Amino acid sequence: MASSFVVGDKFRTLVAELLEKSDSSVPQELRQDLQLLLEKSEPSTLSFRLARKLKKYLQDEGHPFYLHELLEDSSLHLPEVVKPPRNPELVARLEKIKAKLANEEYNRITRNVNTQQMNRNGTLADFGRQVRSVKAAVMTVFNFLVTVVATFACAYMGSQYLFTETTARVISAVIAASVVGLAELYVLVRTMEGELGEP
C-alpha cells in the first residue's frame, strides 16, 4: 500500500524557492524535513504525513500554488510486496493431495481396461466365446437344413398315398418343405432379435 510520493523536479524547484523566500514563516520542523528531503539523492520520497503538513502550511499562509501543483510530476511510491515463505508442512500436504487426485483420475480413466485384452491374439476366454458363437451359428444352419430336408422327405413319402404321379408328389413335398422352412426362418429371426436385445 502506498504511503509516500516519489517527488519530481518541479517539487524540488518550488520547495527550494519556498524555503529561500520565507525563512521566518516556515515552521522549523517542516523546514528541516523539507531540507532533508531536498538533500537526498534521487529518487527521494515525500511521506503522506509530511505532505499533509506542507498542504496545511500552504493553505494557512495563502501561497499562490497548491500541493497538487507541487506534485504534478511526482508519482506514488509503491513498496515491493514481500511474499512470506511458504509453510513446508502445507506444501507437503498439497503435494499429497495432488498425488492422490492424480491417482484417482488415473484409476477412473483405466478402470475398464483389462490387461488380458492387451494381447494381440486375444485371450483363451475370447477364443472360447468366438468358438461358442460359431458353433451356435453352425448348429442353427444345420438344424434348418435337416428340418427342411426331413419335411421334404416326409411329404414326398406321405404323398404317395394321395398322388400316383411323381410330379405331383414332388410339388407337394416342395410346398410342405417351403412352409416349414419359412416357419423355421421366422422363429430363427425372432430368436436372433431377442439375442441382440431388439424388441
The number of strands is 3
Fraction of residues in β-strands: under 5%
**Mean of residue pLDDT?**
78
- How many structural domains can be distinguished in the coordinates? 2
Radius of gyration: 52 Å
Shape verdict? rod-shaped
Percent range of helical residues: 55-70%
The secondary-structure element order is EHHEHHEHHH
Provide the spatial order of strands within the biggest beta sheet: 2-1-3
Low-confidence stretches: none
Q: Total helix count?
A: 7
The largest β sheet comes out as: 3 strands, antiparallel
* Span between termini: 73 Å
Based on helices, strands and strand pairing, what is the structural class?
Answer: mainly alpha
GO cellular component, one term: endoplasmic reticulum membrane
Keywords: Endoplasmic reticulum, Membrane, Transmembrane, Transmembrane helix
Protein name: Transmembrane protein 199
Pfam family, one: Vma12
Descriptive notes:
There is one protein chain. The chain is mostly helical and 199 residues long. It folds into 2 domains: 1-114, no CATH class; 123-196. The protein has helices at 9-21, 28-39, 48-61, 67-70, 88-109, 124-158, 166-196; strands at residues 4-6, 45-47, 75-77. The chain has a 3-stranded antiparallel sheet with strand order 2-1-3. The radius of gyration is 52 Å and the shape is rod-shaped. The two termini are 73 Å apart. The model has no long low-confidence stretch (mean pLDDT 78). Keywords: Endoplasmic reticulum, Membrane, Transmembrane, Transmembrane helix. The chain crosses the membrane at residues 136-158, 170-189.
Task: Briefly say what this structure is.
This protein is mostly helical. The chain has two domains: 1-114, no CATH class; 123-196. 66% of the residues lie in helices and 5% in strands.
